[in-house]
Amino acid sequence: MTNGVLEAALRNELVRELELLNKIADEGDEDSVILMGRHDVPRMAASLLALVDLHKPNSDGRCSQCHRFRWFPWPRTCQMLLTVRLAWTSR
Q1: Pairwise CA distance, residues 61 & 45, whole Å
Q2: CA-to-CA distance for 5 and 15, rounded, in angstroms?
Q3: d(CA 27, CA 31)
Q4: 57 pairs with which residues across the strands?
Q5: Taking 80 as the threshold, does the pLDDT of residue 84 lie above it?
Q6: Cα(56)–Cα(73) distance, rounded to whole angstroms?
Q7: In terms of DSSP H, where are the helices of the chain?
């Protein structure tokens, strides 16, 4: 597999799993929701914490991942943090 094919496969698999979790949360019976909470919620939290850690501020207080692709000097909000936080609060 080339990197693009592998990335697409990983992305598709993750999207399918997350869509299934949403379906279980919305339509699942009580036992399924409890099982998801015990098994999948900790994995989701660990995944989000890994993203937060990857996007931690550098010595200038800017996101170490988002800032490295910018050519302009002024600070902006980390796009990952903004996207995740808005998604988290919109549901």
Answers
A1: 24
A2: 15
A3: 12
A4: 63
A5: yes
A6: 18
A7: 3-27, 30-54, 79-90
Strand partners, 63: 57
Phi and psi at residue 63, in whole multiples of 5°?
-60, 125
Lowest mean pLDDT among 25-29, 69-73, 74-78: 69-73
Residue with tokens 């999207």: 15
Give the total residue count for the chain.
91
Residues 6+ apart with CB under 8 A from 78: 55, 62, 63, 65, 66
Helix axes 30-54, 79-90, angle to 10 degrees: 160
Cα–Cα dist 41/55, whole Å: 21
- pTM equals 0.76
pLDDT of residue 64: 81
* Residue 29, token pair as written in the block: 């019976």
